[in-house]
Design brief:
alpha+beta, nine-stranded antiparallel sheet, eight-stranded antiparallel barrel, 33% strand
Length: 666
């Protein structure tokens, strides 16, 4: 077995590989850029080598720098993780020339299946059903429009070397095809160093289901079930689960056998994933093969008990698979939520900054439930603008899908994350969505169910009442604490009463609280009564509260005369007053936000790539105004209505913060 491996990656996946290497008694080497000098993967590894400036094209995807790190440390093998150099055949070739094992497939398999155009041609030759499209290289926007018209809109414009949603656009007309071609080409060049683009028919209402395969160098190949990856936003997966709630055993077997046959046809070894789109009649079509470890591999590990990273290392060491297809058993159900540094209330635009609070739920591995959090960050660390915005992959497992979803709900409610915008509220909302709960979703789920973007969750009246009861009981506890402060003057004792007024979600509730050693009985004036029990103490940012015997995990923030409560994707302000305070509060004027209707504000921290208009220009609704790049993604900002540009405050090359004024209108 290898004594030392180098991980040619960063963040969450580097930490994930280090954990398995430790378990196997293998020493690890991390590589890091200037931006990652204090990163978690650097701290966890046995050794670390600096490889250059923050941009990936000057550090993590520079083969010569990785090779230098290998020589410096004497690493015998390299795990590439996902992204970066993981599907670069030149990297595999360089390792082979150096006599260093690549913990992944052979160079020929990467070339054959890692390139989307080539892989589709091979699939067609093997009589695998594929989506209609144009497999040749496309020179410019005009040719992209011509091809798109011939295929028929809508079309998917993809980077041949792409992955993770980068270099990918959906076009519904000629203008979008032309713009999408150029943006995809630019993103592909920046992210992968390869700007080749192809176009295929965009199949509406599909499910995205993928098969995990594992092959060794001795002719053995197996599949480890499927993953349902249909909950996607901007073609990037957000929530995955295994198995799929849609497939039956016959379809699973057919897809699995086809995936293994395709892998073995190109001499594939190691772990890999064959992706399919599946229509409502369970017809499936080959999309692509990812010749690497997938981001969502933990859900497969949770339902099979197979450590995929360990298997990759053993296959790279020349060992045969220790299991056959008959040994693979799918046990229970697993969910994965990808936590991203992005603001769901700003159309999921990237967010960067310091993690003021980062407290994931406790990891659990029991016979009836499991919670797992794969991450590469820590409290006090920074989310950089240079890399993918993923913070963590939160996974849960339980015997049934319903139980796994409930475990995820509680885990998301328990995840404390402050300092940056993040998508936990959105993930929590999806877990409660009737279509998701029923397993009735396609890749269009987010676009269809949140067409205007995510604007938060409106809690049910019953949940609001329960939160009001919990807040009232907690506020009374805090008031008692304050009334007992030490060092007070004699004869200045303050009595805490039982009558309160609670305001939540526009509803005002006159409340009476009767407390005892076991909890509080909260009675509202309409006759509703709730029993509240909790060990919450003032200052705790998380409250586990039993209300009428039902557990609620609340994130609690202190505000004047109450709390900011976050629960199941909702963010509500709860005010708790004495009756006299409530009278006075009703007389306070409402504070209105400033008028920014005539300004174009930067929606995310980013770099201005291009400004499309000048001062004095007339613009129409939907017209492109400028392009902002953040976290390797180009975002075109468009006019929301017709107007005239009065002033342009920023130009190409300018770095802007959230809400910086890019331009003003008359």
């Amino acid at each position: 077995m290898f004594e030392k491996i180098l991980i040619a990656n960063r963040g969450e996946i580097a930490c994930r590989v280090i954990k398995t290497a430790r378990k196997m008694g293998i020493k690890t080497v991390a590589v890091y850029s200037d931006a990652d000098r204090h990163a978690l993967h650097v701290e966890m590894a046995d050794e670390a080598v600096h490889i250059g400036p923050p941009p990936a094209n000057q550090s993590y995807i520079v083969i010569d720098k990785i090779m230098d790190a290998i020589r410096q440390t004497g690493a015998q093998a390299v795990h590439p993780g996902y992204g970066f150099l993981s599907e670069n055949p030149k990297f595999a070739e360089a390792l082979e020339a150096e006599g260093v094992a690549f913990i992944g497939p052979p160079k020929g398999a990467i070339e054959a299946m890692g390139d989307k155009i080539t892989s589709k041609k091979i699939a067609q030759e093997a009589d695998v059903s594929t989506v209609p499209g144009y497999m040749g290289l496309i020179e410019d926007g005009d040719e992209a429009v011509k091809i798109s018209t011939e295929i028929g809109y809508p079309v998917m414009i993809k980077a041949s070397a792409g992955g993770g949603g980068k270099g990918m656009r959906i076009a519904w007309n000629d203008e979008e095809a032309r713009e999408g071609f150029q943006s995809s080409k630019n993103e592909a060049a920046a992210s992968f160093g390869d700007d080749r683009i192809f176009i295929e028919k965009f199949v509406t209402q599909p499910r995205h289901i993928e098969i995990q395969v594992l092959c060794d160098g001795h002719g053995n190949g197996i599949y480890l079930g499927e993953r349902e990856c249909s909950i996607q936003r901007r073609n990037q997966k957000v929530i995955e689960e295994a198995p799929s709630p849609f497939l039956d055993e016959e379809t699973r077997r057919a897809m699995g056998e086809q995936a293994v046959a395709l892998a073995q046809a190109v001499g594939y070894t190691s772990a890999g994933t064959v992706e399919f789109i599946v229509d409502g009649d369970k017809n499936f079509y080959f999309l692509e093969m990812n010749t690497r470890l997938q981001v969502e591999h933990p859900v497969t590990e949770l339902i099979t008990g197979v450590d995929l990273v360990e298997q990759m290392i053993r296959v790279a060491n020349g060992e045969p698979l220790s299991m056959t297809q008959d040994d693979v058993k799918l046990n229970g159900w697993a969910m994965e939520s990808r936590l991203y540094a992005e603001d769901p209330y700003r159309n999921f635009l990237p967010s960067i900054g310091r993690l003021v609070a980062y407290k994931p739920p406790a990891e659990v591995a029991e016979a009836t439930r499991a919670v797992r959090n794969d991450t590469g960050v820590y409290e006090g660390g920074e989310i950089s603008m240079y890399y993918d915005p993923m913070i963590a992959k939160l996974c849960t497992w339980a015997p049934t899908r319903e139980q796994a979803i409930e475990e995820m709900r509680v885990a998301l409610d328990s995840f404390e994350l402050e300092g940056i915008g993040h998508n936990i509220p959105f993930l929590a909302a999806v877990m409660d969505h009737p279509k998701f709960v029923a397993g009735d979703m396609t890749t269009a789920f987010i676009a269809e169910e949140y067409p205007e973007g995510f604007e938060g969750v409106e809690l049910s009246g019953a949940d609001k009442r329960r939160i009001a009861a919990a807040a009232a009981a907690m506020y009374r506890v805090a008031e008692i604490r304050r009334s007992r402060v030490s060092g007070r003057m004699d004869n200045h004792e303050r009595m805490v009463g039982s009558d309160w007024v609670v305001s939540v979600g526009g509803e005002t509730l006159v409340t009476e609280i009767a407390a005892d050693r076991a909890g509080s009985t909260v009675a509202f004036s309409d006759g509703t009564v709730h029993r509240v029990a909790s060990d919450w103490t003032p200052g705790d940012s998380l409250a586990r509260v039993e209300i009428d015997g039902k557990l609620m995990v609340l994130k609690v923030g202190k505000v004047t005369s109450g709390f900011r409560i976050r629960f199941r994707g909702a963010d509500v302000a709860v005010k708790v007053w004495t009756p006299r305070q409530a009278e006075l509060a009703a007389l306070m004027p409402e504070r209105l936000p400033p008028d920014t209707s005539k300004m174009l504000l930067c929606p995310m921290p980013g770099l201005i790539v291009k400004v499309d208009v000048a001062e004095g220009d007339e613009v129409q609704e939907g017209q492109a105004l400028c392009t902002v790049e953040a976290m390797k993604m180009e975002n075109i900002l468009r006019a929301e209505k017709a107007g005239k540009v009065a002033k342009v405050n920023a130009g190409p090359g300018d770095n802007l913060a959230v809400d910086d004024v890019i331009m003003e209108f008359e």
